[in-house]
Specification:
By secondary structure, the chain is mainly alpha-helical. The chain has 13 helices and six strands. Helices cover about 70% and strands about 5% of the residues. The two termini are about 10 Å apart.
Length: about 375
């Protein structure tokens, strides 16, 4: 009785009179009379009493509705063509009374933890019972609820994860600044957890929620990597466009002459500034530039050695200056990576704290439910 819903018995095409011993009775009284047990201990009597005693024992609230035929025999042959106006007025009145009771008074089925069984969960629960019967086992409500909780929680994790991915890819047009991506992730993560809480069951719920948080974090890390890759792709495209003239001059050997190195260095600095201006909103611009300048170190040294206008001491000074600039640029790239890692660590700490807070709230709600029960 604690977990079973109210029992509603609907009798269709009812043609009997609602009378008992020539006295008018209600449909509810008709049901109770039908559940009256016979006295005796014969096998036939036991078989007669068993379903009735089960219904009386398991359902504290019992309700009965009787429906007349919805239309005449002739109209019943073309039911799919009839409208509401073609149906019997008494049937429509009975239908209206029945619907009002179901929507207003009939409690939905619940399981331990005061969890309401939805249509999907009821279907899963029915499958658990059927599988138990087919395998020759006795259907056990407690075992069925545990199995149902597992099915429902796995489904809740999948639905929440799918919801998170849909939200992220509909709102996050990569590449984005880490702070912007973090804000979108935070909102999508909270919404996904709400989806999970709405669909999940109390049984081992925290374990599944922890698993969900880990999956959300893995997805977020993957999206962060995609964000970096997309930024790198766009930065490389800008870099190729900006340094195209420099590449052509190097390929044509225009800098292999007296004074060519200074011209090369001047062009390199100018184009570097232009590249930074074009990619200042990208998160990986310094890292891409760092690798590019490192690749050009040997070319710069080759042009320097070919420049006969510089003394040996001046060449050594330029070599060291070029190394220092490459190291400084490498440091900018590392600082850029550190900022991204700090943002990722901050997101993980926030997610962990919110997860702990939610578990505490769930435990408090579970305690309140137990007290009410």
């Amino acid at each position: 009785m604690r977990v079973f819903p109210s029992f509603v018995w609907v009798v269709r095409d009812f043609t009997l009179e609602l009378k008992l011993e020539n006295e008018p009775i209600t449909s509810d009284e008709y049901l109770e009379s039908a559940l009256t047990l016979k006295s005796g201990s014969s096998r036939q009597t036991e078989q007669y009493n068993l379903p009735r005693s089960c219904l009386r024992h398991f359902f504290a609230v019992r309700k009965c509705f009787v429906f007349t035929r919805p239309a005449s025999t002739q109209n019943m042959r073309r039911m799919e063509e009839l409208t509401g106006n073609d149906l019997d007025s008494e049937f429509l009145e009975q239908e209206n009374t029945f619907c009002h009771y179901i929507f207003d008074s009939a409690d939905p089925k619940t399981v331990s933890g005061s969890r309401v069984i939805t249509g999907t969960a009821l279907g899963n629960l029915a499958e658990v019972y059927i599988e138990a019967i087919r395998s020759g086992k006795i259907p056990c409500l407690e075992n069925a609820v545990v199995s149902l909780a597992k099915i429902q929680n796995v489904h809740a994790v999948d639905e929440a994860l799918q919801f998170y991915m849909t939200e992220m890819f509909s709102m996050a047009q990569l590449p984005l600044r880490p702070e912007e991506l973090s804000d979108i992730h935070t909102d999508a993560e909270k919404a996904a957890i709400e989806v999970f809480i709405t669909m999940s069951f109390n049984d081992n719920e925290q374990i599944y929620q922890k698993g969900l948080m880990e999956k959300l974090n893995d997805e977020y890390q993957q999206i962060c990597r995609q964000n970096q890759e997309e930024s790198i792709k766009q930065c490389k495209a800008v870099l190729l466009e900006v340094f195209d003239t420099l590449e052509k001059c190097v390929s044509d050997g225009l800098y292999l002459r007296p004074g060519g190195y200074q011209q090369y260095r001047h062009t390199l600095r100018y184009l570097t500034s232009d590249y930074r201006e074009r990619t200042h909103s990208q998160i990986m611009n310094e890292e891409v530039l760092s690798k590019f300048l490192k690749e050009k170190e040997d070319i710069g040294n080759f042009i320097l050695q070919a420049d006969q206008s510089l003394s040996e001491a001046e060449q050594e000074k330029e070599v060291q200056s070029l190394k220092n600039e490459i190291l400084a640029q490498r440091q900018r790239g590392l600082e850029e990576q550190n900022r991204l890692q700090e943002q990722a660590y901050k997101d993980m700490r926030r997610s962990h704290k919110e997860h702990v807070d939610q578990i505490i709230c769930q435990m408090e709600r579970a305690g309140e439910n137990e007290e009410r029960q």
